[in-house]
Every structure is written in structure tokens, then in C-alpha cells.
């Protein structure tokens, strides 16, 4: 098998062929799927190995002291041979991985061959294809948790143990100094504990990431912004506890901790920074300085780690293994999100190059994962189901209605999008009656009623769904409620217009389709408005038919969200792309006149910018670049469609052109007013379908395919491979 090793004397890094470890009693043999590079601890070892002998000595004074003692005991020649022999040997790297149990040793009965486990330990969870892991250093991975996320288990346990040492309580305010991998996890764990967090790091990208993941404020240690945030959150008293997750030789972290901590607060050292405590500052506040020892109780105890002797839970609640299992559970339940921390995934065969890029600074990363060959092979064609649309006995009969009677509409939700992009197009439309608006707060319903002329305003959804006079329901709420509200409205026999997304996961999508099958009601439209934009429709007409496969590029300059936006609540509302990406996939599929058959997704370091490649049955491809780091002065949406010697160009729904050969076939005039992205035409088509009983504007099968493709983006990011869209028969 292959394993990453380093010669500490020469600094050489290599992937070495070594024998497969035996499966001893009291443990399991695990085939690695993903292992995590600790960009702090491991890079420190890699850097030390490249130093001169004098540099090595300066960096490890503890080892120098051992050498001096050995000289006194054994003499210079014997000590020299011993030290050189140890230095000139290969040593392993790695301590956090996820893999599949390949063999079970004697005395192990809680896992079996084929189980997915997360493993810990710098002697047992190495960057190697196979590892033997004793029972107290692995934990079973919860169902549904992606292997690459479970690979964070050990590092997560380090952060979790550090948080436990701080003894946080609801309402506390904490300071996290150092926003590398451990610091980012500490921020999230504190947030999950009901603690408000201020972060400190000289890197503005890491500060922004921590704020996205829940920190109240972050800033450079030299700025006044951090002190101002602490003063505001604590009423000037100082934070309750400080977590030192920084490294390096500066004494600034411990000095900052003393300055910003309250009287009798706690300072917890998790990382490995300089600790020359300023005596007066710590004495005057009587600060409680604590150390967090790695993954938790049991660490460095051979009876616990190697012999499998557990500590009684009544005496030691949180051991190494229990911390590991707890962290995995938090990630599985969405309380901690590790996906934004994944900066890079490298094939295991590229390990040496990856370490070198990290060391040289070419690869800026919070977390880097190795993906192992067999796992990569298994992940080549993961699939997301595109469920079939089953109608019980055709569509539900459309209620008889007079051609003169207005279409009576109810709105569930009256937020910014509803009041700015939908209701203005409906309020003055002939043949439409705004019947009822439903919101969770009475005042927002009253405001919408006053502004747009709804006949009634209420907070009672059941009354609306039970009103036989209402023809259609608009679902314009937060993303997490779309599928359930759509399902209920379909079962009530209403035509439904739901803003994107239709669903946030496969179960929600299946629930909507189950309602269609149960009720026979397939009168559903999702707010994919761009296919209705007049300018894009004219451009598609001018482009004409095509005979060969096409290439489509869609650049979405989405920009950054304001801090505090509910769009950032990924644990409940899904990712930003899950909420908006359906627009662009639907537009691509409409232009290419087909539904995608596979999806490949990849992010840039920090999970800022997303690239999605869609493949279609005829070989056409569409690339959606969803970016948040672009200039706000650049247009939001630009699109190019290339096929058969022709190019269609759309510039942000303001101008469009079609090129044929060496000349422009057609160029639109610049629109005199605001961009028309199709909302008005979309609503007109929906109202017409409800009034006449004719087909809905977009076939339900297409809505389902687009939703499944959007869901496949997240599955592709988790698996690191193209995702097949498997259509049910």
C-alpha cells in the first residue's frame, strides 16, 4: 500500500510503498476514503524538517534537552548515533481521516466490515491507504454524513475539547484568537452553544469566513474594531472566555487575551502560540488559564488508546472517542458546517505536490483533503434520482368557472421579492383578484393588504387552503418552507406558484410529487422567470435551430451578501446556490431544449465561487459560474451560447446579439427602462393557465429535472465527482 512519509533529517517528502498493517485484536483495519491535512500542525513539521540542524534545535528545545541528558548518561558517540538514526528515518504524517472498515479484529463487535468510520491519532489515522485503528480511536459515521465531512472528526474533536475547557454558558461572549481550521470550528461550536463570538485574525478572508459561519464580528488584532465589538457586546466588561487557536512566536495573542477578558475570565490555550504571560495583567484580573489537551480525556494514555480500556461515563463524561462521536453528530445534524472550510481536494497520488504548494504559499487553504484512489473510483458516478411524475388518473379536473370571473389569488408570504417583483405585476392586471395575503406576523399582512389591495389579510393558512373561492396560491416564503407549503396547497386542490427553490433535498421533492400523485393535482409552477424574458426569447428565435451540440457559458456575478442575511443560514435555508441556482439551470435547459443528465461542481478555496458543469443528452454542455468575489460594477448575468458556427450573447437582460459566421445577424436595441427578466410574462402565462385550465407554462417534468440538478450540485461538492442524474422509470 502507499503512505505519505517524511525524512526529518533531509526534509524529503514522498509517497512510499509499505506493507499493509495487520489487523490486531482490539481494533479494525480501515481503508481510507478521505484524510485531512492539518494545515497548522503538519505544515509545522514539514517546515521544521527543511531547516538546518541548528534550526531544528532552535525549534525544538524540548528535544535538545533530551539530547543533553542522553550525552550525560550515554556519552557523545552513542547519543550521536541514536539521534542521527532517529532523524534519518521515515516518519508518518496525518491524524484525521474517514474510511471503510475492511477487517475487524478480535474483541470488536460494535462495527462490521463495510461500515464507515472516522479515525483519530497520529499513529493510527495516517495519510495511508490502510490503517489499523484501536477501538477508542474510531467512531461510526452517522447515516447521511459525507465521508469527506467525516474526515474532519479528529480536528473537530480538538476544537470541541477546547470549547469544553472554556465551560461556555448561554449568553456568554467569547473571543477566538486565530481563525485557521481549529479557530473556525471553535467559532461554530461556540455559536451552537449559545455563545456570541468575536474573532481575531490578520487575514481578512478568514475573518469574513468566520462571520459567515456565525461570528458576530471579526478583525485584525492591531485594529480597534475588535475592541469596539467586545465593548459593545459585553457592556465594556470584557469577554467571558478567550480561546487561543493561534500559532507562531508572537506574544500578542496572550497579551490581547488579557486586555479583552473580563475580571476572573478564562483563557484556554488550544493551539501552540507563545505563552509569556504578562504577570500583572493576568494577576490583576485573576484570569484562569487552562490548557486543552488534544482530543480529550484518554489522549496519551496507552491503556485507553491502545488497550481499549474506557473511562466510566459517570466519572469522565467526554472522552476522546465520545468527543469524536459528538462532533460527527453535530456535523450530521447541521449544527456545524465544515463544507465552507474545504479549500482544496487533492488526489492522494498528488500528496507531495500538495504539501509543497502549501509550504510555498501557492495554495492558500483552511482545510485540504486527500481523496484516495479506490474512493475516487467509487465516486466517479454517484447519482441523484430524478423522480418520475406519477398522476393518479390524469390531472385533477379544473373547477368550472365563468370566463368573466376573475382569477382569485392568495399569497403566502409578503417579503421583499413578493412585494417588489410579483405583486406590482398582479395588482393592476385585468382578470385578477388579490383575495388573501397570509403572513406569520399580522403587521406585514396588513401592510401588503394596504399597499396592493388584498381583500383580506390573515395569519391563518388553513382558512386560505380551505376557501373554495381561491383558485391559486403563491408560496413566497423562506426556502425551508417551500416544499411543505406547496404540498399542502396541492392537496387542497389549488394551483400553486412557488418561488424557487421547489425543494432543498430529495425527500422534500419526493413529498411534493407524492402530493401530486395522491391528489391528481399537477397544477404547479416554480418561479423560473428568465425563460420568459422577452429579450432572451427574441435572441433564441434569432439564433434559430441547431444541428450539433452546443456550449453554453452563464456567468452570474452574484456579489456578497450583507452580514446577517437569512440567505447565509445554510443549516436551515440551504446553500445560496440551492436557493438561486435553479434559475440558471432552468435557463440553460430551456435554451438547449433538454434536461441535464449529469452535474459536476467544484468550488474555489474558501467555497466562495462555484463552477457547475451540466451535460445534456446530445453532448451539449452548460457551465454556470456562480461567483461572489467579483466587482459590483460588473453586470450580474452574462450568457453565451455557441453552436453550429453561431453565437448568442446576452448582457444582463439589457442587450443581446446573435453572430453568424463573420457578421452580426442581429443586435437588439438597448432597453429604454429597467431590465425585464420575465416576471410579468411568467405571471401572465400562469394566470392564463389557471383561468383556462390549459397546460401550465412549464411542464412539471422539467421543474423536477431542474430541481434534481440543483440538488445534485451539493451532492457533487460532497463527493468530489460528477453526479449522474438517474431518471426513474
From TrEMBL:
SUPFAM superfamilies, per the entry: Glyceraldehyde-3-phosphate dehydrogenase-like, C-terminal domain, GroES-like, NAD(P)-binding Rossmann-fold domains
Superkingdom of source: Bacteria
Query: What is the required cofactor set for this protein?
Result: Zn(2+)
- Asked if Zinc is a keyword of the record, the answer is yes
Q: What organism is listed for this UniProt entry?
A: Streptomyces albospinus
Family, similarity comment: Belongs to the zinc-containing alcohol dehydrogenase family.
Q: Per its record, how is this protein called by name? A: Oxidoreductase
Q: Which UniProt keywords are listed?
A: Metal-binding, Oxidoreductase, Zinc
**Limits of the Alcohol dehydrogenase-like C-terminal domain:** 182-300
Domain Gfo/Idh/MocA-like oxidoreductase N-terminal span(s) in chain numbering:
408-528
Q: Which Pfam families does the entry link to?
A: ADH_zinc_N, GFO_IDH_MocA
Q: Which InterPro entries match?
A: ADH-like_C (IPR013149), Gfo/Idh/MocA-like_OxRdtase_N (IPR000683), GroES-like_sf (IPR011032), NAD(P)-bd_dom_sf (IPR036291)
Against Gene3D superfamilies, the record matches this protein to:
Dihydrodipicolinate Reductase, domain 2, Medium-chain alcohol dehydrogenases, catalytic domain, NAD(P)-binding Rossmann-like Domain
Amino acid at each position: 500500500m502507499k503512505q505519505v512519509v517524511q525524512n526529518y533529517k533531509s526534509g524529503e517528502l514522498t509517497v512510499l510503498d509499505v506493507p499493509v498493517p495487520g489487523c490486531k485484536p482490539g481494533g479494525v483495519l480501515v481503508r481510507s476514503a478521505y484524510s485531512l491535512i492539518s494545515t497548522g500542525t503538519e505544515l509545522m513539521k514539514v517546515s521544521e524538517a527543511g531547516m538546518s540542524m541548528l534550526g531544528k534545535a532552535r525549534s525544538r528545545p524540548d528535544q535538545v534537552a533530551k539530547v543533553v541528558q542522553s550525552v550525560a548518561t550515554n556519552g557523545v558517540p552513542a547519543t550521536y548515533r541514536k539521534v542521527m538514526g532517529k532523524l534519518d528515518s521515515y516518519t508518518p504524517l496525518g491524524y484525521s481521516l474517514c474510511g471503510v472498515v475492511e477487517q475487524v479484529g478480535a474483541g470488536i463487535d460494535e462495527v462490521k466490515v463495510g461500515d464507515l468510520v472516522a479515525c483519530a491519532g497520529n499513529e493510527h489515522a495516517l495519510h495511508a491507504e490502510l490503517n489499523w485503528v484501536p477501538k477508542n480511536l474510531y467512531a461510526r459515521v452517522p447515516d447521511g454524513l459525507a465521508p469527506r465531512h467525516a474526515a474532519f472528526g479528529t480536528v473537530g474533536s480538538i476544537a470541541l475539547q477546547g470549547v469544553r475547557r472554556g465551560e461556555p454558558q448561554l449568553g456568554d461572549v467569547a473571543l477566538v484568537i486565530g481563525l485557521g481550521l481549529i479557530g473556525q470550528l471553535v467559532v461554530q461550536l461556540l455559536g451552537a452553544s449559545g455563545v456570541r463570538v468575536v474573532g481575531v485574525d490578520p487575514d481578512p478572508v478568514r475573518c469574513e469566513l468566520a462571520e459567515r459561519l456565525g461570528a458576530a464580528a471579526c478583525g485584525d488584532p492591531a485594529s480597534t474594531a475588535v475592541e469596539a465589538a467586545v465593548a459593545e457586546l459585553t457592556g465594556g466588561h470584557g469577554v467571558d472566555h478567550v480561546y487561543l487557536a493561534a500559532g507562531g512566536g508572537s506574544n500578542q495573542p496572550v497579551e490581547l487575551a488579557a486586555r479583552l477578558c473580563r475580571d476572573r475570565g478564562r483563557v484556554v490555550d488550544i493551539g501552540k502560540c507563545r505563552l509569556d504571560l504578562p504577570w500583572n495583567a493576568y494577576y490583576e484580573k485573576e484570569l484562569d488559564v487552562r490548557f486543552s489537551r488534544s482530543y480529550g480525556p484518554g489522549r496519551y494514555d496507552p491503556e485507553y488508546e491502545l488497550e481499549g480500556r474506557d473511562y466510566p461515563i459517570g466519572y469522565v463524561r467526554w472522552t476522546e472517542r465520545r468527543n469524536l462521536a459528538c462532533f460527527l453528530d453535530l456535523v450530521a445534524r447541521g449544527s456545524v458546517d465544515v463544507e465552507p472550510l474545504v479549500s482544496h481536494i487533492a488526489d492522494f497520488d498528488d500528496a507531495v505536490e500538495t504539501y509543497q504548494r502549501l509550504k510555498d504559499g501557492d495554495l492558500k487553504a483552511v482545510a485540504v483533503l486527500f481523496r484516495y484512489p479506490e474512493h475516487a473510483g467509487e465516486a466517479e458516478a454517484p447519482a441523484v434520482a430524478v423522480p418520475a411524475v406519477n398522476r393518479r388518473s390524469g390531472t385533477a379536473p379544473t373547477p368550472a368557472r365563468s370566463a368573466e370571473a376573475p382569477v382569485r389569488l392568495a399569497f403566502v408570504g409578503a417579503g421583499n421579492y413578493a412585494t417588489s417583483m410579483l405583486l406590482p405585476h398582479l395588482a393592476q392586471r385585468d382578470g385578477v383578484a388579490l383575495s388573501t395575503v397570509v403572513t406569520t406576523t399580522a403587521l406585514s399582512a396588513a401592510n401588503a393588504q394596504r399597499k396592493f389591495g388584498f381583500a383580506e389579510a390573515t395569519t391563518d393558512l388553513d382558512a386560505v387552503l380551505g376557501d373554495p373561492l381561491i383558485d391559486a396560491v403563491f408560496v413566497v416564503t423562506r426556502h425551508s418552507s417551500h416544499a411543505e407549503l406547496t404540498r399542502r396547497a396541492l392537496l387542497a386542490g389549488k394551483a400553486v406558484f412557488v418561488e424557487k427553490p421547489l425543494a432543498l433535498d430529495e425527500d422534500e421533492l419526493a413529498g411534493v410529487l407524492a402530493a401530486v400523485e395522491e391528489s391528481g393535482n399537477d397544477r404547479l409552477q416554480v418561479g423560473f422567470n428568465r425563460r420568459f424574458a422577452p429579450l432572451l426569447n427574441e435572441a433564441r428565435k434569432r439564433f434559430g435551430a441547431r444541428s450539433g451540440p452546443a456550449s453554453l457559458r452563464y456567468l452570474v456575478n452574484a456579489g456578497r451578501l450583507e452580514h446577517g442575511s437569512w440567505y447565509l443560514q445554510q443549516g436551515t435555508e440551504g446553500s445560496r446556490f440551492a436557493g438561486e441556482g435553479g434559475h440558471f439551470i432552468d435557463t440553460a435547459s430551456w435554451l438547449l431544449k433538454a434536461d441535464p443528465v449529469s452535474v459536476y461542481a467544484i468550488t474555489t478555496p474558501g467555497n466562495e465561487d462555484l463552477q457547475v458543469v451540466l451535460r445534456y443528452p446530445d453532448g451539449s454542455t452548460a457551465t454556470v459560474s456562480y461567483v461572489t468575489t467579483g466587482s459590483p460594477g460588473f453586470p450580474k448575468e452574462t450568457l453565451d451560447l455557441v453552436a453550429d458556427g453561431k453565437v448568442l450573447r446576452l448582457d444582463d437582460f439589457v442587450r443581446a446579439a446573435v453572430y453568424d459566421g463573420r457578421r452580426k445577424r442581429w443586435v437588439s436595441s438597448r432597453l429604454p427602462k429597467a431590465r425585464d427578466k420575465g416576471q410579468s410574462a411568467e405571471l401572465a402565462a400562469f394566470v392564463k393557465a389557471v383561468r383556462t385550465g390549459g397546460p401550465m407554462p412549464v411542464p412539471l417534468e422539467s421543474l423536477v429535472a431542474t430541481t434534481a440538478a440543483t440538488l445534485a450540485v451539493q451532492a457533487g461538492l460532497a463527493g468530489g465527482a460528477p453526479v449522474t442524474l438517474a431518471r426513474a422509470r
